Please model this.
Amino acid sequence: MVRYQFGGESELSNAPMSMSLLGKLQRDILTGKYRPGQKLTEQNLCKEYGVSRTPIREALRQLETDGLVENILNRGCFVIGFSEQDYEDLFDLRKAYEIQAVKWAIDRITDDEMDRLEETFEFMEFYTMRGDLDKMLVINAGFHQVIYEAAHNRMLQKTLTSYQTFLRYQGMNMVYGPDYLTTVLEEHRAIFKAFTDHDPKAGAEAMERHINRAKERRCG
Amino acid sequence: MVRYQFGGESELSNAPMSMSLLGKLQRDILTGKYRPGQKLTEQNLCKEYGVSRTPIREALRQLETDGLVENILNRGCFVIGFSEQDYEDLFDLRKAYEIQAVKWAIDRITDDEMDRLEETFEFMEFYTMRGDLDKMLVINAGFHQVIYEAAHNRMLQKTLTSYQTFLRYQGMNMVYGPDYLTTVLEEHRAIFKAFTDHDPKAGAEAMERHINRAKERRCG
DNA sequence: GACCGTATAATTGTATACAGAAATACAATT
DNA sequence: AATTGTATTTCTGTATACAATTATACGGTC
Model:
């Protein structure tokens, strides 16, 4: 049995069913509810999310490590702003890791993971055929997630998952062209083929093309 | 006036003079005081570091985000173990980012940063001449830090700094060969030359060689 | 002796209380 | 009007208290 977990609601580990406080804060920062430079007062966040200061502070510390807020001693947390350059750069950082991920994944993937990758790709074909953009965006993220897992490196997985979260909320404002679905499908097909061919080099090249075009499209 | 901050005691932002709790925990995990799989009980850490649970918990959350511990809901924090493969992989992840860093840095470096890079390199030459390994290791980290800063990308800088911390504590157990100093100096000279030549491609190649050899040497 | 259920203890998650620092308001002074 | 010094308030940093969950110990049953 293969389970899918594309919803994005549960953040890998400790998520008590509903969206975690950390996830909510990530969302609200990345979607612009809190503006760059804005001070996040703990009291206000307590009221906003209906919890006490302790969990708020712990979430803020994680956001600090994630690089979404800056904590200045005795003065509080401030939302970090991202320039256009930062967003562009993110594609290059992601590209470097995605290429490494696919190379490792093709070498290290287990049979079970290969089954999941195949099934995920078949879902991509299905939803492309149906023209279901929303489902496609979710499956798209899932396809990459399987690769991250198959790379069998915790740090890589954490970092790329974090980038995905980042781009997911960014992508919510994007406009998707008419042939987005078919184009992206073919890009993923090339990547998937590299897995069936056990060809890390081809995988790296296909992934590089994929991310380069994603950068041009300015969406995942 | 150019100030150096190589000591590694102060972690960029909020470090109240002495080593921060987070830094101590990082050190004690990475140097093996706490073993992989070991449970970090909050009470014990309180006694160990002489603070209450609140700051301990906040530090643990940051360590979780950093990937040094795993937090299981209602069960506590456990030290994450790193395999030989993980350590090898880390060089590849670092390589990907260091190459990107040097390419951006050569494009984006300010005059002030260039002065600091030059001065740092001159210190490297001096300490190599003197055969001062300890100082050299510190300056080595500093040289890369200047590059990270010159790349002008917060995420890149955070990630690479974190890798440096990781490898620094690892490197403490390493044995350095007799020509380590001169070899490393020449590798850095090639990188530095790429900056004076404003040649990102050459910089990337020099950096790739540097990290590849570092991987062979199994130290910074 | 192995297994299971309950009671107890220990530990985590959350809320609150208190101390110290920073921001603010405001009066006095130039 | 601008500035400085002080008092007040607000907020962060830390410690502690309480609630919920998990781990442990122990006794009963097979």
